[in-house]
Amino acid sequence: MIISGPAGDRVVDNDEGRVLTSGRGGHRLPTFDEELFRRQAEEANYSFESSVSDTINDSTHIRQETRDGLKLTGVYSYTDGFFKRTVHYVADENGYRVLKEESEPIGFGPKINPAGHVDVSTNIGGNSLQYTITAADIPSLFERNNVEQINQRKAI
Questions:
Q1: Strand runs (DSSP E) across the chain, as ranges?
Q2: pTM over 0.85
Q3: Cα(11)–Cα(120) distance, rounded to whole angstroms?
Q4: For residues 106, 107, 112 and 116, what is the CA-based torsion angle, rounded to 10 degrees?
Q5: Contact at 8 Å (CB) between 69 and 44?
Q6: Residue 125 confidence class, pLDDT cut points 50, 70, 90
Q7: CA nearest 115: which of 83, 155, 147, 73?
Q8: How far, in Å, CA of 7 to CA of 23, rounded?
């Protein structure tokens, strides 16, 4: 429904009766949910970091991120047995952007190690969690034939 008045036309949602646009330019007004989302985004503040060091599958994953209102900065890095890749990024009113990207050769593929372990750590707002997993914690993960088949495929 369009309502005309001295300040210009307004478009009103017939179901809820809220004003969707107002003024002579007809600019859409934010809904309550949009306004709430915007306020929460502007007030958001957090910092976290996490890492996984996996000597069973020969890989690492690291991520660090800090948010201060609408500006978010971070870095993530991982290895896959071939390369170590690291990406530094920012997200703000101009969108998501990669600031720096690094790629470093580290080998000819992952080396499976059934006797290895996985160290996991995370820190969110000063609260830390750390634990370790070994192949013994996942008994069916490494049957002797499975490891030999994986290593033979890499040799081809």
A1: 2-5, 8-12, 19-22, 27-28, 45-54, 59-68, 71-79, 83-92, 95-105, 117-124, 127-134
A2: no
A3: 54
A4: -40
A5: yes
A6: confident
A7: 147
A8: 6
